[in-house]
Amino acid sequence: MREVRVLKGHGTGNDFVLLPDLDGEVELTDAMVAALCDRRFGIGGNGVLRVVRSSATDDPSATGAEFFMDYRNADGSSAQMCGNGIRVFARFLVEEGLASPEGMDIATRGGVRHVRRLPTGEYAVGMGQARGVDAVASVMVGNRSYPAIGVHVPNPHAVVFVTSVSAAGPLDRAPEVSPEHLFPEGVNVEFVERIAPGHVRMRVHERGVGETLSCGTGACAVAWAVRRQGDDAMRIRVDVPGGTLHVEERDGELELIGPAVIVADGTLEADWAAAWI
Amino acid sequence: MREVRVLKGHGTGNDFVLLPDLDGEVELTDAMVAALCDRRFGIGGNGVLRVVRSSATDDPSATGAEFFMDYRNADGSSAQMCGNGIRVFARFLVEEGLASPEGMDIATRGGVRHVRRLPTGEYAVGMGQARGVDAVASVMVGNRSYPAIGVHVPNPHAVVFVTSVSAAGPLDRAPEVSPEHLFPEGVNVEFVERIAPGHVRMRVHERGVGETLSCGTGACAVAWAVRRQGDDAMRIRVDVPGGTLHVEERDGELELIGPAVIVADGTLEADWAAAWI
Question: Mean pLDDT over residues B35-40, rounded?
């Protein structure tokens, strides 16, 4: 069996197994993704980022850019886009000499995204436009009810401003959001605390997952809402439990800026991989 | 900075970062161990197994064998021995051509241990003798009280026989064990269900950790207790949540047998490692 290269990386604590498969030789089954993402029996990660040339895969989204981000959740299901994952993906391409740090397009199931490396070493990804929900939602935290701002990035978010994010308490269970018909497919909930002009702190409950260390689209939703609440900074700093992100808005277009870390680079042991590949 | 090699492996779900450092060039700080073991920001593991020649370290336990298992818990603290970790450690030595699969001695903080590879590919490690506690302990599970057999391997265990291990309920909190003076340093608690002669299933609460997928000394404690409860099988199969172990007893000496899996082999990224090494 040939060697299978894998890397581990993260963006603000959202962690991934990278699987370089430029020529589309790996058939990525659900079982293999789950095995790779298993934190005890495998490598461990929130998902797998398979790096494949668009020309080497049949995925209909693999178009408009040289490389396609084949992103899978830890259970093997396909995912659209990930603002933290795509930065790690882009860093991999840059470090391999496969893309220019000045800027590159990457095809994803959420469309083609533009990514560039900043002089700080951080990576910035264009996240498109946010679209507000034309109604006020309500989120229950403990036995208090807060008004929430609904926004699609394009996945649904409900943004709640609080005096202190720690007061939101444990977020292991999904907060109740009403009226339900506003978010028929469920909703991610962000709790936001203002630190200073242009600077907030947030915690997030991701639908179907629970509280997470970071959420790229959540940070964009928060920055968008912060600006609509009277903060006119073009660049909003968003502290998440896993680190710091920045969101810039120009002509309605959001750009998510943050670290892209690669931890280790290696190969799967043949014995272990033989069960999956 | 030179390249730092790391591997990830596990024994019945007890997982480790292996750090080959044969010539003792790495100063393994608590912060570096914690960074390596962090499941989101690092590699992820229950602990680090540094592989070092006994001649290349000042550790007073590094004597009596060519290689020393410098085993650290995920918080960086030194640990004595680990029946699951030492099998992975031994497999590494064998695969590197540094030890014979027929058998090798390995120095640990719990003394020199003998390990050998079996024809099945499993690894067997001599765990020494168990010493029973000369009193009956009592363990509370929910609102029921069960008698428990106390045994040192040499760390303390309380073994409770139950009709069904699932009936023990969630083990996220430490079961109450009395009388307290029997185990002044705390105690690991095993719940054991008989499946067939020579075959049991167990769940374990490790002191200071919580419920775990596996515990090598726990499996030894259980097998020892099973034999003292009338099962005369020389070899006891112990199913743990993370897989299957076997324990053989000869002249009072226990041998722990189980899988040793290496998942991946690679190097730390220089940028990431620069913060720690």
Answer: 97
Rounded alpha-carbon distances, angstroms, from residue A86 to A78, A89, A112: 15, 5, 11
Contact B234, B248 (CB under 8 A): yes
* CA angle at B87 for the pair B81 and B93, rounded to the nearest 5°: 110
My answer on whether A112 and A154 are in the same domain is: no
pLDDT at residue A175 in the model: 92
Q: Please judge whether B13 and A39 are an interchain contact, meaning their C-beta atoms are less than 8 angstroms apart.
A: no
Clarify whether residues A215 and A142 are in a common domain: yes
pLDDT digits (tens, 9 = 90+) for A192-236: 999 999 999 999 999 888 899 999 999 999 999 999 999 899 999
Claim to verify: residue A236 and residue A139 sit in the same structural domain = yes
* B70 interfacial to chain A (CB closer than 8 Å): no
- Closest Cα in chain B to A17: B43
Give how many domains chain A has, as a whole number.
2
Residues A250 and A208 in one domain: yes
Instruction: Examine the domain organization and report whether A136 and A252 are in the same domain.
Output: yes
Question: Per this entry, what is the length of chain A?
Answer: 277
Which CATH number does the domain housing residue A159 bear?
3.10.310.10
Same domain assignment for residues B168 and B193: yes
Give me the residues of B, 28-57, that contact A with CB < 8 A. Answer: 39-44
Q: Cα distance from A216 to chain B (closest Cα, Å)?
A: 16
3-state secondary structure of A208: coil
Q: Which chain A residues are closer than 8 Å to B6 by Cβ?
A: 264, 266
Question: Looking at residue B152, what DSSP letter applies?
Answer: E
Within this chain, do residues A94 and A67 fall inside the same structural domain, yes or no? yes
Listed in order, strand segments (DSSP E) in B99-252 are: 104-108, 111-117, 123-129, 131-141, 144-152, 156-161, 176-178, 188-196, 199-206, 210-212, 235-240, 243-250
Please give the pLDDT value at position A1: 58
Q: Which residues of B122-131 are buried (b: 16+ CB within 10 A; e: fewer)?
A: bbbbbbbebe
Q: What string of DSSP letters covers A211-255?
A: EES--HHHHHHHHHHHHHTT---SEEEEEETTEEEEEEEETTEEE
Distance between alpha carbon B248 and the CA centroid of its chain, in Å?
A: 16
Q: B61 Cβ partners below 8 Å, 6+ apart?
A: B68, B107, B108, B109, B111
Q: Is A37 a catalytic residue?
A: no
Q: What is the largest CA-CA distance in chain B?
A: 59
Closest C-alpha to B101, from B126, B87, B118: B118
Print the domain residue range for A92. Answer: 5-122+260-274
pTM value surpassing 0.90: yes
Instruction: Round to whole Å and give the CA distance between B192 and A129.
Output: 57
